[in-house]
Design goal:
The protein is α/β, with parallel strands linked by helices and 301 residues long. It has 14 helices and 6 strands.
Amino acid sequence: MKGKMGSTMYEHYLEIAFEAELNTREDPELLEMAPEICNEHLDTRDAAITELRRMIFDRGECEPLRTDDEYLLRFLRARDFIIPRAHKLLVRYSAFREQCSHLYQDVDLWGLIKAGEAYEGCMYDRPDVGRLSIMRFGKWDPSEYPVEDLVRLGVVMFEIGIRQPKLQVFGGTVVVDLEGLSLRQVSALTPTIAYQIVNIMGVSTPSKLNACHIINYNWLLNTFFYVFKKFIPQRAWDKIHFHGNDLKSLHKHLDPACLPPRYGGTCRSHVSARKWLQKIKKYRDENFDKEMKQLGFVIKE
């Protein structure tokens, strides 16, 4: 795309995409797809939200951050409008935020831009893939910032992304690229950190993980994955795919149109989390700041 349209037009295209990134309005076309994707029907949606809210107060198993319709809708969409499952997810999410409050409370949101090269995102969202996120742990230099900041940025990416109705419905797909991973980096991935990462990827957050693809690994994979696997629910294993260095294997699961050229794809709307967060800072509004502060983040100009 970039080669055909030129760098100036390409940057303009990205600017439009970033402006849309903070759009929390519901798209009529999205609502037409929602019944098939997440069992959401407009004629029963309000009743489902009301029932979920009633269940929260009747059972008293958690004290959610919010109970407004827009907020509860995230949990219903993440669990295909099965109300008991949505409630269970809300309880887990509330518990996770309490247990791991250091990932939110008094964290300088824009200060996490420094960790932005370890994540990428392809802003080409579609129903079968959702938002494609790429984790590149081999890009992380432990001497520059602690592993906790790496996790905090993952939390921020989730909390900002899940504000979009489109991503609530479509969910997301993750590519874990282990190229360049060293023993030094693996040693920092303690069971506690692994627990936090697995929970952020959908176990305890109102999001749908469509698939996780692990690529470009070496002998360290066994050590890396040993730390993580005990926290991965049994039901999630059929969503995890190992491809080694075989891009053809990856393409059997992911359309190259969704992948950046590095992985044999044609998607040019991929950006580092560093650039993504810088653009979020540029285009945010008062409502965005209010929601992020409510989560515990510090918003500095």
